[in-house]
């Protein structure tokens, strides 16, 4: 009889190592991520007549509202762009961020019943949220492209350019920022629920601090600094610039955004990892 | 002896009682302040043994305290104990849904836990989709599920409904499907909570059979938590008895179960002598005396019958006062409830009542029983419930040479005739 291997495959201890993110384990649960994304997508529009068309209706109605209020009544500049294209570009990319953040931030509370019964790497849940919103974003971008193409053909003042190649990067950065910030908030809300109340209108306020309904160029100098400090501003502006050729983008701004994203993501993952093991006792 | 597959060392878990949230911040700050100064956690010391029936002084309790045991590969270990003994906490820590406060568990191999069936089932998705989703949540890869898919559907017996949303399923079908997914996991260690209390008798049998297969044929290790001593005896090779967060007995299944069923010193009567204000009870009812015995004052046997004598003080006047005795067997299954309406015309008085119950002989089978007493108003409101006031034993009477207990809850003495004719 040969000697059995004496090593333990796993040790359950009070505290996990701070940097032990268990990425290998995360990879093993890749199938779960796919299943969760599928579930989100299929379950949302089951038993609705219009089904995924709802993905179109939301941004369209919002765009029409913004055109009326901000465009026609408040007469905020759209940088000489057709209003529909200007607002829809902002709304499409902003909604992705806002939805991802809102859902990620309440991930512990929403999934307490699953988390309480079965173990799997908790990071899967926020990741699945960001990815399933990505599917939605894809559909909404196609709507934007339709409208954008219509204006392009009818000769509006649109100049698509090489920055289009950066659009995937913009989306990834947006996703990671939502994920990072969402994980920090979700970790804090397991004990103190106060932040949830702050979150809903906090996200709304954040939209006004991001050039979604106004262009960077319309800002007075003294506010421009504040808006630039928001790492989302550059991303929204870049997204719009790539398709239309109007807006203010800079490599420094992009670099700043990248740094902020990385910091948020790392911080979020660390805090989340620390809380996930004990949250069941407090949530 | 081979090496253990699970080793639990000095495992403890502390919970905070009461409302979490109020005062949490101040405790957190205090903890942090002690930590900064290099002292031990001020709240880790003050926990007490977790006995839910007595009131403690501390806000913190130890749900588990200094648990040590190990499990060999291929063993099926039963974990038994009353409600609140710490069984579920132990399972939660083993299944990694919560972390221990101190101590550690070392494990060789993958753990899958079945604390609940159908975790993550989505009512809108079809049976097929849910098998994949639930399987993935439980830790199976897509490939593994593909391989097991037909076996799962077959085991659950829902082939016709596999493409129907599970919200249209009957609750039995739902549970069967959920258990089927779980039963086809292939971990080295399987942790099972009392999920067997679901489905019809036929399915329960199937589940027990499946669990036996898992351990006997596939050589996997199973930890099984249950109140059902029958199932524990049938399945487990050894067992652990937990009480108030401490291990009180470890050994083979038969010994542990019988220890658990005869645990501790039994209170066979309650007789309160002292200041009336301090007698057990509350503002409405104070229990002075409760006695169990048989007519001739000797041991209670199957034929002797059982007498209960209750003396209590009633405070609330002009209500319809009622009392109920609840008889439970050693598996904590309620055998019967015996109600008695003391007053029916809203004329209860403030004073001492004495009530005698008699259960005639040849009613209950031999075994250990416990009595809870429930006082009620208007048959609607509970004035006071005394849980497990006393325990008593009914001694077996042999039939012929058979010295074993007969199975079942009842032991009746029917009138039997027998005739014989020569061929």
Order of helices and strands of chain B: EHHEEEHEEHHHEHEHEEHEEEEEEEE
Give the helix level of chain A as a range of percent: 55-70%
Mean pLDDT of chain A: 86
> Any idea what the radius of gyration of chain A is?
21 Å
**Sheet with most strands: strand arrangement of chain B:** 6-7-8-4-9-10
Tell me roughly what share of residues is in helical segments of chain B: 10-25%
Strand content of chain A: under 5%
How confident overall, as mean pLDDT of chain B? 81
CATH architecture of the largest domain in chain B: 3-Layer(aba) Sandwich
Largest sheet of chain A: none
Q: CATH H level of the largest domain in chain B: which superfamily? A: P-loop containing nucleotide triphosphate hydrolases
What's the end-to-end separation of chain B, in Å? Answer: 63 Å
Pairing-aware structural class of the strands and helices of chain B? alpha/beta
Tally of alpha and pi helices of chain A: 13
Q: What string, H for helix and E for strand, traces the elements of chain A in order?
A: EHHHHHHHHHHHHH
Transmembrane segments (chain A): 53-74, 80-98, 119-151, 163-188, 195-214, 253-272
Main location (chain A): membrane
Domain ABC transmembrane type-2 (chain A): 50-275
Membrane topology (chain A): Multi-pass membrane protein
Q: What does the model show?
A:
Chain A: InterPro entries: ABC2_TM, ABC2_TM_bact-type, ABC_2_transport. Chain A: It is found in: Cell inner membrane; Cell membrane. Chain A: Pfam families: ABC2_membrane (PF01061). Chain A: This is Transport permease protein. Chain A: Keywords: Cell inner membrane, Cell membrane, Membrane, Transmembrane, Transmembrane helix, Transport. Chain B: GO terms for molecular function: ABC-type transporter activity; ATP binding; ATP hydrolysis activity. The complex is a heterodimer of chains A (283) and B (423). With 283 residues, chain A is an all-alpha fold. Chain A has one domain. Helices cover 68% and strands 1% of the residues of chain A. In chain A, helix 3 packs across helix 4, helix 4 runs parallel beside helix 8 and helix 4 packs antiparallel against helix 9. Chain A is globular, with a radius of gyration of 21 Å. The N terminus of chain A is likely disordered. In chain B, the strands form four sheets. In chain B, strands 6-7-8-4-9-10 form a six-stranded mixed β-sheet, sandwiched between helices. Chain B contains nine helices and 18 strands. Chain B is globular, with a radius of gyration of 26 Å. Chain B has two domains: 189 residues, 3-Layer(aba) Sandwich (Rossmann fold), CATH 3.40.50; 126 residues, abc- transporter (atp binding component) like domain (Coagulation Factor XIII, Chain A, domain 1), CATH 2.70.50. In chain B, helix 4 crosses helix 5. In chain B, 23% of the residues lie in helices and 32% in strands. Chain B starts with 5 loop residues before the first strand and ends in a 29-residue tail after the last strand. With 423 residues, chain B is of the alpha/beta class. The model of chain B has no long low-confidence stretch (mean pLDDT 81). Chains A and B meet through strand 1, helix 2, helix 6 and helix 13 of A and strand 1, helix 1, helix 3, strand 5 and helix 4 of B.
């Amino acid at each position: 009889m040969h000697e059995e291997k004496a090593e333990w495959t796993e040790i359950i201890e009070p505290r996990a190592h701070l940097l032990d993110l268990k990425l290998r384990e995360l990879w093993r649960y890749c199938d779960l991520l796919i299943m969760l994304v599928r579930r989100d997508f299929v379950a949302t529009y089951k038993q609705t007549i219009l089904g995924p068309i709802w993905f179109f209706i939301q941004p369209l109605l919002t765009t029409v509202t913004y055109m009326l209020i901000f465009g026609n009544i408040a007469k905020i500049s759209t940088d000489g762009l057709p209003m529909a294209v200007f607002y829809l570009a902002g709304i499409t990319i902003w909604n992705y961020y806002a939805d991802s953040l809102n859902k990620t931030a309440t991930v512990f509370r929403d999934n307490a019943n699953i988390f309480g019964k079965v173990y799997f790497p908790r990071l899967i849940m926020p990741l699945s949220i960001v990815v399933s919103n990505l599917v939605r974003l894809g559909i909404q971008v196609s709507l934007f492209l339709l409208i954008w193409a219509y204006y392009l053909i009818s000769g509006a003042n649109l100049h698509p350019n090489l920055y289009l190649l950066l659009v995937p990067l913009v989306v990834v950065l947006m996703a990671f920022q939502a994920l990072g910030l969402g994980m920090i908030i979700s970790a804090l809300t397991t004990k103190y629920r106060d932040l949830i109340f702050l979150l809903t209108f906090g996200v709304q306020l954040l939209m006004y601090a991001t050039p979604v309904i106004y262009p960077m160029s319309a800002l007075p100098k003294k506010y421009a600094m504040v808006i630039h400090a928001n790492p989302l501003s550059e991303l929204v502006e870049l997204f719009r610039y790539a398709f239309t050729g109007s807006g203010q983008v800079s490599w420094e701004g992009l670099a700043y955004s990248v740094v902020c994203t990385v910091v948020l993501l790392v911080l979020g993952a660390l805090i989340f990892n620390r809380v996930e093991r004990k949250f069941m006792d407090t949530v | 002896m081979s090496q253990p597959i699970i080793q639990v060392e000095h495992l403890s878990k502390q919970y905070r009682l009461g409302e979490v949230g109020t005062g949490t911040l101040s405790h957190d700050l205090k903890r942090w302040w002690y930590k900064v100064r290099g002292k031990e956690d001020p709240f880790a010391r003050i926990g007490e043994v977790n006995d839910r029936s007595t009131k403690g002084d501390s806000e913190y309790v130890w749900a588990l305290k200094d648990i040590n045991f190990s499990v060999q590969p291929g063993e099926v270990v039963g974990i038994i104990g009353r409600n609140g003994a710490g069984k579920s906490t132990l399972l939660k820590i083993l299944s990694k849904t919560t972390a221990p406060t101190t101590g550690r568990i070392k494990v060789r191999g993958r753990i899958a836990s079945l604390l609940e069936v159908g975790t993550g089932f989505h009512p809108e998705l079809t049976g097929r989709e849910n098998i994949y989703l639930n399987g993935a949540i439980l830790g199976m890869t897509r490939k593994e599920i593909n391989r097991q898919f037909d076996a799962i559907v077959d085991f659950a017996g829902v082939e016709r409904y596999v493409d129907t949303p599970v919200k249209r399923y009957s609750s039995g079908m739902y549970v069967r499907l959920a258990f089927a997914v779980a039963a086809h996991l292939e971990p080295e260690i399987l942790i099972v909570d009392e999920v067997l209390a679901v489905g019809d008798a036929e399915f329960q049998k199937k589940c027990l059979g499946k669990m036996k297969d898992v351990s006997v044929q596939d050589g996997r290790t199973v930890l099984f938590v249950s109140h059902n001593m029958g199932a524990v005896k049938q399945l487990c090779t050894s067992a652990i008895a937990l009480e108030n967060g401490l291990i009180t007995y470890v050994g083979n299944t038969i010994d542990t179960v019988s220890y658990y069923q005869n645990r501790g010193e039994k209170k066979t009567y309650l007789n309160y002598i002292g200041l009336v204000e301090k007698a057990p009870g509350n503002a409405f009812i104070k229990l002075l005396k409760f006695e169990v015995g048989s007519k001739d004052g000797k041991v209670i046997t199957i034929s002797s019958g059982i007498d209960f004598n209750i003396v209590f003080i009633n405070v609330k006047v002009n209500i319809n006062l009622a009392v109920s005795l609840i008889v439970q067997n050693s598996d904590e299954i309620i055998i019967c409830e015996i109600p008695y309406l003391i007053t029916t015309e809203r004329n209860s008085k403030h004073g001492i009542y004495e009530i005698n119950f008699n259960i005639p002989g040849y009613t209950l089978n031999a075994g250990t029983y416990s009595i809870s007493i429930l006082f009620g108003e208007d048959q609607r409101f509970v004035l006071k419930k005394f849980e497990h006031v006393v325990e008593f034993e009914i001694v077996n009477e042999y039939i012929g040479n058979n010295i074993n207990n007969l199975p079942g809850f009842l032991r009746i003495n029917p009138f039997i005739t027998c005739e014989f004719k020569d061929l």
